Amino acid sequence: MADDAGRSPQVAVAQAAPPRNDDQNRVTVQENEVEGEFAIRAVNLQKRFKDTVAVRDVSFSVPAGSIVALLGPNGAGKTTTVNMLCTLLRPDGGSATVNGHDVVRDAAAVRRSIMLTGQFAALDESLTGRENLVLFGRLLGLSKGAAKKRADELLDIFSLTDAANKRVGQYSGGMRRRIDIACGLVTSPKVVFLDEPTTGLDPRSRQEVWTLVDRLRDEGVTILLTTQYLEEADVLSDRIVVIDKGQVIAEGTADELKEATGAAYCEVVPVDHGDLGRLVEVLSDLIPGGVAHVADHTVAVPAPRGAETLLEVIRRTADAGIKLSDIAMRRPSLDEAFLALTDPDRDVR
Ligand SMILES: Nc1ncnc2c1ncn2[C@@H]1O[C@H](COP(=O)(O)OP(=O)(O)OP(=O)(O)O)[C@@H](O)[C@H]1O
Ligand SMILES: [Mg+2]
């Protein structure tokens, strides 16, 4: 089933590979890498489709137990990046490890340790939610009893117990997405890839998926999600990797991205609008060129030094006896930051 945007949401789930007896040393090194630092590492990944460079150069790391959002506009290369990490696509260049396994050299090991769900084709529409979960469990080698137990746990976690015996073909979009993700969690994966988990969902269903991601976070699951929604990246992730035209163009927390892309302002509003002129005067040397931006009886003072500038403004206005009705720091919103970063006129070469 396609979502509103006409695409099938993709959800890929990877789990830690079980230790292998035939190559104990290698497994030890890999486990150290996973436990020590990163559950996902991408270094200079590249992928081209004929004339299209889908991924030009993407590097980032996801610390174990954290949530990273790949944020970017349509065609940025998010899905291609995720698919390389899941070994669905072979990179043309660069390297990556998931749970310590190299996605090219150890593709088989990665594949053995990765479970893919979410393309909806994987779910049997004629089966109920519970039957699908049990089927997944059985396919993954769980005993009948264990598969049923896990199915009931997941139905509970995903608030699908009431719909457990309904055929998946009759599920709403949000329920569908949840059962889809649930099927990927049958064997408690350590790493989960969620490619646009909420695209096409209504606000309530989106909230449900967010709650679910929060739960996974609480369980210590590492999550790489892709999204076009800034709000989603802001709310869900610990760090955001902004991708545009196949390249990482910025990386950091939502706050860091806001700071990196736009200057902060201190907005000052006098109680008495008649004081505006005097206010500009006492602050003039803080304003480049001395030309104040005044709108709605508010004077905007660039605040490159953040709170320090704010304090300076308060001190000066107090000294001048100008009463203020409001003073606030204003930083660019994440939307503004994103638009600035992904400006089509921006030269990325
Ligand atoms: N199989 C393919 N064959 C040819 N071109 C492809 C293929 N897959 C992706 N592309 C192209 O590679 C670029 C990156 O696509 P990708 O799907 O990775 O972007 P995305 O960031 O996931 O976008 P969206 O937000 O729309 O899902 C796009 O220009 C896309 O048209
Ligand atoms: Mg995509």
Give the total of domains: 2
Order of helices and strands: EHEEEHEEHEHHHEHEHEEHEHEEHEH
Bound molecules: adenosine-5'-triphosphate, magnesium ion
Instruction: List the uncertain runs.
Output: 1-35
Radius of gyration: 25 Å
What is CATH's topology name of the largest domain?
Rossmann fold
Main sheet specs: 7 strands, mixed
In total, the number of strands is 15
The level 1 CATH classification of the largest domain is Alpha Beta
Percent of residues in helices comes to: 25-40%
Determine the number of helices (DSSP H or I, runs of at least 4 residues): 12
Secondary structure category = alpha+beta
CATH architecture of the largest domain: 3-Layer(aba) Sandwich
Strand content: 25-35%
